[in-house]
Amino acid sequence: MTQAALFDAFGGIRGTVETMLPGLLFVMIYTFNKDVKMSAFAAGAVAVVLVIVRLARKDTVKHAFSGVFGVGVGVAFALFTGSAKGFYLPGMIYGAGLGVAFTLSALVGFPLLGVVLGPVFRENLSWRTRNPGRKKAYTKASLAWGLIFLAKYAILFPLYWWGDETQLGWLLVALKLPPMVLAVYFTWVFLAKAPPPIDVIAEYEAQEAAEAARKSQA
């Protein structure tokens, strides 16, 4: 699998842009007018529009729906707290939680990245018991994701607590894409050196075909 194909598995360029756009719009509007409500409603509106566009084009909506849900929670927090930092907090907690989850999953030997990518490679969870080389690669990749996410939020949370909310917003936008690209790159490096996946879907289909042939001859 190429780096581009692997990046597509996590939403690709379009999915990344769609997740960045509401937050970018929020911080741009807030930077100029300091109006939390206007900024929040604008971010929520553009998130909804992005989902509608995907639905109209009959595109995959998984990443768009997850994005609009995250924006919706941020909008609710911003309106409830009356603070721009309220818009950022849910996403920061979620991202830090992902960092912890990726790290712990690697340490306990059940790497989360293998769970996510297993169906993409048609191997499901076969890597756990039948392909130790891929399990090792998934473990290294999950640990990389975890440490990158934790490092990102180790930078952001002090600014959330003690810094300026506008600076925090722009830093969040700036750190949206680079850590993900770095994590995907490490994933590609580790998986490129790993044994190929076991296509359990093909195995199952072959078993079904053999069973059907056996019954037809009976």
From TrEMBL:
Pfam families, sorted: DUF3159
Iron-sulfur listed as a keyword: no
Membrane-spanning segments: 12-32, 38-56, 63-80, 92-121, 142-162, 168-191
Top-level taxonomic group: Bacteria
Keywords: Membrane, Transmembrane, Transmembrane helix
Stored InterPro entries: UCP010219
Name recorded for this polypeptide: DUF3159 domain-containing protein
